[in-house]
Amino acid sequence: MDQKELIERITQEVVARLQISQNRIGGASPSSEAPLPSELARYIDHTLLKPEATEEQVDKLCEEAAKHHFYSVCVNSTWVDTARAALAARERRSALS
Questions:
Q1: Does residue 92 share a domain with residue 49?
Q2: Separation between Cα atoms, residue 10 and residue 28, nearest integer Å
Q3: pLDDT digits (tens, 9 = 90+) for 57-69
Q4: Which partner for 95 in 16, 74, 83, 84 could form a disulfide, CB atoms 3.0-4.6 Å apart?
């Protein structure tokens, strides 16, 4: 299975689980639908919390978050300033851990 097929498979699974979750809590009306695969990124926090993370890994995390339009980036408090600087021009949210 190549990367594109894997992403599609995971996306389908997430959408299915969101639909089930909405139905269980009664938040979904018959006409409401789970987000489209292209809209899922806005629900994702891109995370790297391990204390031994490197600056290069944090930079890569921020680059990926911007590329895929993830909701936020969560990093260990050691790397908040680095992540904030890397994301400043990209308008991504950062979260302290």
A1: yes
A2: 22
A3: 999 999 988 888 8
A4: 74
